[in-house]
Design goal:
With about 190 residues, the chain is an alpha/beta fold. The chain has helices at about 20-35, 45-55, 90-100, 110-125, 140-155, 170-180; strands spanning about 5-10, 35-40, 60-65, 80-85, 100-105, 130-135, 165-170. It has a single domain, classed as Rossmann fold, CATH 3.40.50.450. It is built from six helices and seven strands. Helix 1 runs parallel beside helix 2.
Length: about 190
């Protein structure tokens, strides 16, 4: 039985570095070891599939959410503890977010960026206070950090934006930060 759930946004592809896949494996196993349920995009491909398989192999609970039009493309992982098929991508993000106590973003592409910016925007608008972590494997998120700094420096974002997420260098640091953050939060029960 899980008492906390962690949403992991990440790529539906493997990326070019082995370290990305290793991070996904470590994240899935680490969530399971902590007794936290993985909430993710329900795919059985790329970093998504790795994270889920690692969580399952370590005995963890998994909750996947996928829109109907991606069931084939992202190869719906049907052996999850629970999965939901949504009508739209927006609904997918909402269901994932509402069923989690924290958000972790591993390397990924446009979809992962969209997911990060949506939860970051919701935080900026004071719609939630859930912790958000970017896991900066091999400096993957450094260009994003530069863009956010640029937006702040150019007056398009308040400096407080940088305080709504935390950049961490690796999975062990992310898991430790999650432990600290989740110990202060009530569980999301769904």
């Amino acid at each position: 039985m899980h008492d906390k759930s962690v949403c992991v946004f990440c790529g539906a592809r493997e990326g070019v570095r082995a370290a990305y896949g290793e991070a996904a494996n470590a994240m899935g196993a680490g969530l399971a070891a902590a007794g936290w349920r993985l909430v993710y995009g329900a795919g059985d491909v790329g970093l998504m599939g790795r994270t889920a398989r690692a969580a399952q192999e370590a005995g963890g609970a998994t909750f996947g959410v996928i829109p109907e039009h991606l069931v084939r493309g992202e190869a719906l992982k049907t052996d999850l503890t629970r999965h939901v098929i949504t009508e739209t991508m927006h609904e997918r993000k909402k269901v994932m977010f509402m069923n989690s106590d924290a958000v972790v973003v591993l390397p990924g592409g446009a979809g992962s960026l969209d997911e990060f910016f949506e939860v970051l925007t919701w935080r900026q608008l004071r719609l939630h206070t859930k912790p958000i972590f970017l896991v900066d494997i091999h400096g993957y998120w450094q260009p994003l950090e530069g863009l956010i700094t640029h937006a702040v420096d150019e007056g398009f974002a308040d400096p407080s934006l940088r305080g709504f997420y935390r950049l961490v260098p690796d999975v062990p640091t992310a898991l430790s930060a999650l432990r600290d953050a989740l110990s202060r939060r009530k569980a999301t029960k769904l």
